[in-house]
Amino acid sequence: MTEALPFVDEHRVLVSAPTFVVWSALAAQIPQFAGSETFVRLLGASPNRTSGESIAKGATLPGFRVAEAVPGHRLRLTGRHHFSRYELLLTLAERPGGTLLSASTYAAFPWPHGRVYRLIVIGSRIHRVLVIRLLRDVRRRAEGAATGG
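-> structure tokens emitted (149 positions)
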């Protein structure tokens, strides 16, 4: 889906933990990042509920489908609703001192209602705040697990 959707933004965080620990933390945190079933139903999101195993390919969370899952390397979540088609690509890369966790967002906002939605979600920085919170929560969880805390 990345090729068909315009780039929106990218955020990164260096996590002081090995990639397998960061992957586990990501798997634990993603369900909390997904929208509530009630909210995604109001938006007409697809998928709109949880199914399958956590972040395995084909699993769903409210607002997201796991389109690709390469443990320790890449997680690609896709979805759509009345105002947007979108993808969140999370990548993990070994770096000195830990793992670089990146979140890249791609999305299309068709029609006038989509443009208004983009202004509300992207223009207001709500999206940025939520993605950065996800990355920080994964970092906190992974670093806690890596230190035994």
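The chain is about 40% helix and 35% strand.
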